[in-house]
Amino acid sequence: MSSDSSSLHSSAVINEAVQNLRDGGLVAFPTETVYGLGADAKNPDAIKAIFTVKGRPSNHPLIVHLAAPDKFDQAQVDWVPVLAPWVRDLSEDALKLINAFWPGPLTLVFKKDKSVLNELTGGQDTVAIRAPAHPIAQELLRKFKGGVVAPSANRFGKVSPTSAADVRSEFDGMLDLMILDGGDCEVGIESTIIDLSSGDHPVLLRPGLITPGEIFTKTGIKVYLPGELGSTKQEAGLPRVSGSLRAHYAPTTPLRMYAPGRVLDALSEFPDIKSRVAVAVWDSDSSLGEDGHPSVHFEEVIVPSDSTTFASRLYRSLRDLDQQGWDLILFPEPPAGEEWDGVRDRLQRACFGSGPSSSSHANS
Ligand code: TXA
Ligand code: MG
Q1: What is the CA(205)–ligand 1 centre distance, in A?
Q2: Structure confidence by residue, pLDDT tens digits, 101-130
Q3: Confidence at residue 219, expressed as pLDDT on a 0 to 100 scale
Q4: Dist. CA 25–CA 356, nearest whole Å
């Protein structure tokens, strides 16, 4: 979200993107989290094209992206007319969350207005909405004057793209896609998703940069973790989240996490691997050294020990390492603490789905 990123695109290019959306086409665009693959939220055929291009099962709902009202940086902005066409009821809690965090990396799930297309909600009675903060996303949405559905611009089950070049490589040779280039994404992992549709308790569906702790501090609203609700009935009623599949965000190189000082334990699952192992090491740690494991050759890759910086580079690192031909990639287990929940979640899924058959895992 660098301040000059909107200058990467003239308004003529944005206007062309808007026209593409109006014509039912797809446009990839930057958000502060990851790049999205956008389509007109009111056009069923365009929505279907997204599912086809991504290889995503049609019952996995999409997020509707909306423009913030003008002068959103001033107090007393009225979000009600922005949301009214999409959601059935807007609770006081919802408005508090919106005023505190929009535009930004927070997605809220509401009971949907009846006009919202089933194609985008996967037939559910709820709709997920967010107002992204990236200036190019905002300019596109403002000029389009409507909702834009945008999943992350990757093939289903793969690592989300955090640069325009990543998007290009995802769909290379498949389709001639217009991609707005807004530079590298600042947040680097997908938005936090909170379900407000039950009316009782807000529930965290996907952890991200914005944590329940930060939400409580800024708004006094308690967000529950799915496990905290106790009642299995309530959990069974939770909407489906594709990021909640165990395997997701997966590289094709096998990926595992190691506990502090336990690199060799992580390796024991792969007795045949003696070299070409990339080991990510916290920048705050001294290097692994060769002691204790002379039979295996490691290459160290330094990773940030600050959770926000780690998140901003996670997908970049996974993509780059995946391209480099390693036999195995090892990442340190993130420490305890909710600020690490977003990256821990993505790393766990990436480990589970990694390896040459990652796409079949991801689709199961
Ligand atoms: O940061 C983001 O949210 C990015 C950028 C592009 O905005 N988008 C993104 O979209 O991550 P996608 O489609 O890759 O993930 C959307 C998630 C899915 O896990 C989906 O299941 C969930 O949102 N979702 C969408 N509608 C929902 C609903 N009605 N109820 C529950 N979950 C929903
Ligand atoms: Mg995604």
Answers
A1: 10
A2: 999 999 999 999 999 999 999 999 999 999
A3: 98
A4: 32
Calculate how far, in angstroms, residue 228's C-alpha sits from the geometric centre of ligand 2: 25
Ligand 1 binding pocket includes 107 (Cβ within 6 Å)? yes
Could you tell me which CATH number the domain at 3-236 has?
3.90.870.10
Intervals of the chain under pLDDT 70: 1-8, 71-76, 230-248, 287-295, 357-364
Domain ranges of the chain: 3-236, 255-361
Pick the CATH number of 255-361 from 2.40.128, 3.40.50, 1.10.8, 2.60.40: 3.40.50
What is the distance in A from the centroid of ligand 1 to the CA of 175?
23
Q: What is the pTM of this model?
A: 0.92
Tell me, what's the pLDDT at 287? 66
Q: Tokens representing 285?
A: 């740690």
Do domains 3-236 and 255-361 share one topology? The answer is no
Span 214-245, pLDDT tens digits: 999 999 999 999 888 765 444 444 445 555 56
**245 alpha carbon, closest ligand:** 1
pLDDT score at 240: 53
